[in-house]
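re: ur question from earlier - yeah i can do the single chain one, its not a big deal. heres the input i used so u can compare w yours
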Amino acid sequence: MSIEWALSPNIAYLFLVGGFLLAIMAIFSPGTGMLELTAFVALLVAGWHIYQLPFNVWALVLLLLGVIPFLLAVRKSRQLIYLVVAVAAFVLGSAYLFRGSQWWLPGVNPFLALVVSVMAGGFIWIATVKVMESDRARPAHSLETLLGAVGEAKTVIYTEGSVQVERELWSARSEKRIPAGRKVRILRREGFILDVEEISEKE
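and the output i got, formated as tokens:
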């Protein structure tokens, strides 16, 4: 492998975009650390390329500015013009991130910059929208509505036990022993533990 091929702007660009995408995936779905490690290695290789290759500062600034219309497109989903502007900034900034043989020539293959920018932008778009929808979603029920609710003892309840309220299973305790299968009323909630009492058959 020649050093010229290893220092190809196209290779550097792919490592840079791949590193950022892996980093975003690691943020959204933290796990074993493999994503974080792979993202770090990819960005490290991309950084080495950037250090070795001449790059255009204005193209880097354009890439960063492209984030602004992208965020506007995410927040205002009906204003797709923002997304078009963002993708255009990403493509142009990506193509000219590294200097070509002439000042007017892009260092990165324009077709590669277009395909990668659209795919990466689409991935980030979907991931960001899903996260925002999740944050905006209201809880299925308020924990305060548990007080006074009726459930069923799934195990014997005394100093500890389990109770089912609607479709959820909770840890429970009671001042008096409650056999499994009995109906119980929620008195208090302390963290994820419910204080319950047995409902008499007359109620």
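The mean pLDDT is 82. not sure if urs matches, ping me
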